[in-house]
Amino acid sequence: MNISRRHFLILMPAAAVAWESVLAGTPEQAPNYKMSDHWWGMLVDISKCIGCGNCVRACQAENNVPDGHFRTWVERYHVDDYHLENPQVISPDGGKEGFPSVAEDPNGKFFYVPKLCNQCADSPCTQVCPVGATFVAPDGAVLIDQAYCLGCAYCVQACPYGCRYIHPEKKVADKCTLCYHRITKGLTTACCENCPTGARQLADLKNPKDPIHEFLRTHNVQVLKPQMATGAKVFYNDLDGSVR
Amino acid sequence: MNQFKDAGHLFRFAGLFVLAFLVFLVVRHFVVPKSFGEYGHYRGAAIGEIAALPIHYAGHQACESCHSDVADLKSHGKHAHVNCEACHGALEKHAEDPTSVTPKLPDTAVLCARCHTATAAKPKGFPQVDPEQHSSGVPCQTCHQPHSPAVDAGGAK
Known about the structure:
A: Alpha-Beta Plaits, 3-stranded antiparallel sheet, elongated, B: elongated
């Protein structure tokens, strides 16, 4: 076969393009979840919470949370006019079935505070684990490797927010995973999905298009126990100073 | 060689030390999981195991892909941002197999009251009623279509 100089010059770039695609390999069929693209947190808007307990029920159904234990729960605060420093806090069965009614014209103010794992960036719970069974994943979710956990409960004591418990059957530590099995599939968490008022919003702090950034700029947002320097990533809007 | 004359016991001890170290390396090789240390001081494979857990709530996008009529009705009403499973419960199984798994119709007497029962503890702007006074036992859906609850939007469907 004789290739003229003219043909050779035409074929060379074509061959180069073909070789490029060989080097690149077959393109991915589905867009895969990339941990390095996310930094997960949550926004809780106290002014929107009505204390219906939908989040608590949804969390239990989604994650098979045993009765009497909670990955998320709702507290009702009553700050009365004369004891501002000592609010009364109740959370009957985690607020799963709602709250007892209050008098028509109560003294002081009431509000609901949903609580969950704060997904701390510098979490005290992961630092005390003696075997490396709990950790902050590269996308910011604080997770527990239950196959590796000894059940020593150091982390349960270390969490300043009381978000961990020892699973009564598995005998290992358990807590909110921020519905890691859902958010990695492109869904929101079970609690956010089922919150009727939008008081809970999943937030991806690494996504520049996430409305969380605008919200943090324009609202007075706090985290729980900032003095603990845990790097908590669950942000509370309209949080009363009496909340602990 | 004179200086090693009485050092035999030291060499035997060093030998033991090396042997123990080798045993340690072999045991460590078999005991430490393969993915340990992939991302940090933990088993990297655990991340994938947690991500692979089954979901129970399908998410409103899954519901809306079939029930576009309800999604359309809902989008114009007050309940536009209340997702389907907030009232209908976890329905991933139904989304997987719509024919053999059918959801139960929720009981509005319990469901509506859960959010809309009046109490001074709720935020002021939220619509609240005393169910006894408001309807004296008449089911909510007689007047309110749950997917678009304004009274002029029509009754039960």
